[in-house]
């Protein structure tokens, strides 16, 4: 299944649009300050904030897609797996996984559908994207919280998350989301979490839950969310 092309016929929106709005407000404030203040500091500030916005924008419209294509190629799916995407949003990870499945495989996306997480965050948009990508026949969408998945035990061969558990509010709820991910995973199945922050805790929780081959690694500059202070880290594990 390696080398699957990215059709990108769909529209995936912008991740964390409120962050970009904040950078834009900061740039505007610095520029206005520069009109009444001597010295280069406001202009330097505006430039730095604009650079942060550009890095974030690159990650959300290009970087994350390239990284996930590589990650899914590394997983070498057979094509008949049942795959779960936690917090699927408009389907960037979900549909990339679905493209690697054949008639025997299913890609299920679960999301609470909150617009603060992603621009145009709506189940209807994700359905349209699945149609545009030609994978609607193997995609299912569910509404639910990641800390309380509306799914049966031992249902999936692969559980994915693309910066979704990060958006769950509260350490206890995030711990429940990790536990739920393990609960719905079949023996022998794999968890692949690309997250911003708390990844040491996630790895520790997976180990405590009896998962094996627990690993962490950085995903590089293509998945920086505004800069190196907000990197994406990959956590992987297998269920014995």
TrEMBL record:
<dbReference type="InterPro" id="IPR013216">
    <property type="entry name" value="Methyltransf_11"/>
</dbReference>
<dbReference type="GO" id="GO:0032259">
    <property type="term" value="P:methylation"/>
</dbReference>
<protein>
    <submittedName>
        <fullName>Class I SAM-dependent methyltransferase</fullName>
    </submittedName>
</protein>
<keyword id="KW-0808">Transferase</keyword>
<keyword id="KW-0949">S-adenosyl-L-methionine</keyword>
<dbReference type="Pfam" id="PF08241">
    <property type="entry name" value="Methyltransf_11"/>
</dbReference>
<dbReference type="InterPro" id="IPR029063">
    <property type="entry name" value="SAM-dependent_MTases_sf"/>
</dbReference>
<keyword id="KW-0489">Methyltransferase</keyword>
<keyword id="KW-0812">Transmembrane</keyword>
<feature type="transmembrane region" description="Helical">
    <location>
        <begin position="40"/>
        <end position="57"/>
    </location>
</feature>
<keyword id="KW-1133">Transmembrane helix</keyword>
<feature type="domain" description="Methyltransferase type 11">
    <location>
        <begin position="84"/>
        <end position="193"/>
    </location>
</feature>
<dbReference type="GO" id="GO:0008168">
    <property type="term" value="F:methyltransferase activity"/>
</dbReference>
<dbReference type="InterPro" id="IPR023576">
    <property type="entry name" value="UbiE/COQ5_MeTrFase_CS"/>
</dbReference>
<keyword id="KW-0472">Membrane</keyword>
<feature type="transmembrane region" description="Helical">
    <location>
        <begin position="12"/>
        <end position="34"/>
    </location>
</feature>
């Amino acid at each position: 299944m390696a080398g699957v092309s990215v059709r990108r016929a769909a529209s995936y929106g912008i991740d964390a649009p409120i962050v970009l709005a904040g950078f834009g407000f900061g740039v505007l404030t610095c520029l206005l300050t520069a009109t009444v203040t001597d010295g280069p500091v406001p202009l330097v500030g505006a430039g730095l904030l604009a650079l942060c916005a550009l890095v974030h924008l690159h990650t959300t419209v290009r970087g994350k897609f390239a990284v996930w294509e590589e990650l899914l190629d590394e997983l070498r799916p057979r094509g008949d797996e049942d795959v779960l995407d936690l917090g699927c949003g408009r389907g960037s990870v979900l549909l990339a996984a679905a493209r690697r499945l054949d008639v025997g495989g299913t890609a299920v996306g679960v999301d609470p559908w909150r617009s603060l997480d992603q621009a145009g965050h709506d189940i209807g948009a994700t359905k349209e994207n699945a149609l545009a990508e030609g994978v609607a026949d193997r995609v299912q969408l569910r509404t639910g919280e990641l800390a309380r998945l509306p799914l049966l035990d031992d249902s999936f061969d692969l559980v994915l998350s693309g910066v979704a558990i990060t958006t769950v509010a509260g350490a206890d709820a995030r711990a429940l989301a990790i536990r739920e991910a393990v609960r719905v995973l079949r023996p022998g199945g794999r968890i692949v979490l690309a997250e911003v922050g708390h990844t040491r805790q996630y790895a520790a929780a997976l180990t405590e839950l009896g998962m094996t081959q627990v690993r962490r690694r950085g995903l590089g500059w293509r998945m920086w969310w505004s800069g190196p202070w907000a990197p994406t880290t990959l956590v992987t594990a297998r269920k014995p």
